[in-house]
Amino acid sequence: MVEREPYRDRIELLQGTLDLLVLKALTWGAQHGYGITQAIRATSREALQVDTGSLYPALHRLEREGAIASEWKTSDNNQRVKVYRLTAAGRRKLTEERSRWDRLLEAMSLVLERSKAPSGTES
Amino acid sequence: MRLRLPFLSRGRRERELDEELAAHLAMATADRIARGESPEEAATSARRELGNEALVKESTRAQWGSGSLERLLQDARYGLRILRRSPGFTTVAVVTLALGIGANTAILSVVDAILLRPLAYADPDRLVVMLHKGRNPAAPGNFLDWRAQNHSFESTGAAELWSANLTGAGTPEKLTALKMTPEILPMLGVQPLMGRFFLPSEGEAGRDHVILLAHGLWKRRFGADPDVIGKSVMLNGEAYAVIGVMPPGFVFAPFWATESELWAPLDLRARAASRESASLRVFARLKKGVSLAAARQEMASITAALEREFPGTNRDVQVIALQEKVVGGVRPALLVLLGAVGLVLLIACTNVANMLLARSSARQKEIALRAALGASRGRTIRQLLTESLVLASAGGVAGLALGAWSVRVLVTLAPPFLPRLSDIRLDPRILVATFVLSLLTGVAFGLAPALQASSVHLQDALKDGGAAGSGRQAGRLRWVFVAAEVAIAIVLLVGAGLMMRSFVALRRIDPGFDPRGVVTMEVSVAGTRQAEIGRRPVLYREILERFAAVRGVRSAGAINHVPIAGDIWGWPYQIEGRPRPRPGESPTAAYRAVMPGYFATMRLPILRGRDVALTDTSDAPGVVLVNAFLAGRVWPHQDPIGKRIALDGPDDNPSWLTVIGVVKNAVQSNWAADPDDEVYLSLLQRRALMESPQPQEAYVTFVARTDWDPAALVPSLRAAVWGIDRTLPISEVHTMQEIVSSANGRARFQTLLLAAFAAASALLSAIGIYGVMSYAVSKRTREIGVRMALGADPADVLRLVVKQGMAVALAGAGAGLAAALLLTRLMSSLLYGVGPADPATYAGVAAMLLTIALCASYLPARRAAHLDPMKALRSE
């Protein structure tokens, strides 16, 4: 679920891409949920806004799968926050998700850049 | 390291999620303020950005491990809450299930211990016994031939009853013991706790004075002495060496002489040729791969050949599986009980299903509301199913408690004849099985109402106000359930009624004597100096005299084998002046030898003639009293007094005994058996009983009658015996009443159990009928109101409602009577003096159940008839 308002040119996240984004964001360092949304938003130049309704289920699911681990810490302004970090399993998962994404991109561009129908499949 | 999430408690996880989201919100708000928004504006937009917090939490929670279990618990908690809100329903349902499940657990435990759990021997399936007619012992000559000639058995052995008077330190005691050929113990595949078994060479005279002790005897008489092996023990006045102790729980033989505490080797060589005196129970182990049928075939040809060679000695030898021999007698009773218990469980389940059905109809509005709010059909079914599972589990737990308790009660109530009574306990496998059973009950009987309820048409249910929306189908199903309950209850009640009538008939049997006020006491002389020739006549007379002098004793007498409790010796006989029977074809009579006063003491009337007298000794001519049955059979229209019979069988110069009296028929050993030939001889004339050192002949049972409590006489009687000789073992001290009730014990136990189940089933079906009737009335409140508003008078309403209930009850009763006619045939072997189709029982039971049904429908009907029409019309 991605909220489009109030930013008009946001992109709806594809199914399965959220895990990839979260895992990637955590390679920059351990981070709490809010931090992850901000990091993704900033890095994508405001184009990707992760919805909390999807983020927290994803975080809890990844944690249950063992891809990330959590810890309670106290932030700079004395706020107790739950901080997530990547585990070794998470790194492996990231590599897998990344290569899947790359294959998807490649396949997408193959299709989208083709200008005429491939031989043998003419109707 | 922190604990992994799945292990956190739910409450803590919830708190952490709250905190995590609160932190998110706080940081988002702080960022917005930092970007220049006003605090209020920032808080509002941060909250908006977060979205529906409850929804975020719900979908996050859904990611937490084992979600289905969580949901199950949630459903279960909800189910519990719902059940708590209707305590009446819940209590009745749980109690109903507990009754069914508890009874099942208890009876299953008994059946399992007795019928299903194999004997405590290695590979018990291959053990067999060989007996004439399946119950009578074999003669040594025959046993030796069977053993030598068969190829079916890897080992064949024989055992013989022995009684051992243990003297020396402590009270003299007569022990039940067996002598056995050395094959037997290795054949059973058991090991001694310590020591060893008999050597083959110990089955010979001179080397046979070795014994094995039962664990209980070793503890009781030898203080569990670890060095008992090799010690010498005085038995029947002779020294025996202890060579071993058997482990606790070891029982042999399992179907007879089960209380044996001592085993010694059996020397058969002196009797090897005898085919007459049969005293051996033959045991064998089938070779691997040899079937029982093949062994039977081989034994049939072996015995046929022997019968040709020695006519009359090898008739009808049966090879029976040991297990079958041990439990065969009680199997029909246990199976009937098992069937009864199954039926009670069925009634209980039907009742609960009915209640669930009624409730789910009543809850249609709630269910429709849930559906309208978006609950899926699957979710609703799961919710209802969980509720019935919660109910079934509660019933299961209560049932297990009841079952554990009932097993204990059963074991204490059970008469001692039940084989392997000590093996009965609540088996963990049965616990699990029963619990699964209760859960299955929950599923099976929760599913139908759940499916039915979930297919409710939303609009109908909501519009209807929930009252009339139950649907024709559900109503019919409930009535079918009630009819089925009535039918099952009828079957059970008929079964119990038949058992009760047999029991009454058994109680009415006249044993011939009057057991009240009589006490029995066995005195054995074996191994004491009283065994010497010439001493017994004096001793026995003196004991009788001293008994007669005891304060409170009215009369005293003596007999070799007291009826019911004592042994039964059959003896072939012939009649003077009649053709001599061919070998093996002599009629046999039960043989008893009495001292003067026995008949008077037992109040066993002498119909004609006189009692034996102290003068009927070995110097005087032989005398005999016969029972009325024998007299009527042999001398139908003559006076038997003065006629002569001989107990030697077809002998060339028989020793004739003159009939001096005819005695009323008395029960012999089997309480309900038809009368059979019986003779009473003068004990003082029986040389073997007066002179033999053999322990089975060197004892006598004294009987004394008092007008007081016979048990209170025992100390004085003991003192009287020990006043003559302190070394005499006294055993089998019972009141005759005890002996008679032990003979009735089996019937009493079976009747008691079946009656209990029948009562439970009648109660349960009354609850069922009442429940459904009152539910039906409450559903029809508005209709009844309309009828009454239109002028129906209360009596009409009453008739209407009662008619509906009784129609169903009658249908059920009809089906039940038909089923009972079919099923009670299976229990005809348990019945005495009443046929399985006894019309009085059927009529009585039907009347009783219909009365119950009438009451159960009358009460709700009366409520309906007294409705205020206005209120009824306003009701939903």
Strand arrangement across the biggest beta sheet of chain A? 1-3-2
Structural class estimated from helices and strands of chain B? alpha+beta
**CATH architecture label of chain A:** Orthogonal Bundle
Overall shape of chain B: elongated
Largest interface: A-B, 26 and 27 residues
Predict the CATH topology of chain A: Arc Repressor Mutant, subunit A
Give the % helix of chain B. 40-55%
Count the domains of chain A: 1
Distance between the ends of chain B: 61 Å
CATH C-level class of chain A is Mainly Alpha
Percentage of residues in helical conformation of chain A:
40-55%
Instruction: Give a quick account of the main beta sheet of chain B: strands, pairing sense, barrel closure.
Output: 12 strands, mixed
List how many beta strands of chain B DSSP finds: 22
**Poorly predicted ranges of chain A (pLDDT <50, ≥5 residues)?**
1-8
Query: Based on DSSP secondary structure assignment, what is the total number of beta strands of chain A?
Result: 3
User: Which ranges of chain B are low-confidence, i.e. pLDDT below 50, for 5 or more consecutive residues?
Assistant: 1-7, 464-470
Give the end-to-end Cα distance of chain A, rounded to a whole number of Å: 38 Å
Mean pLDDT of chain B: 84
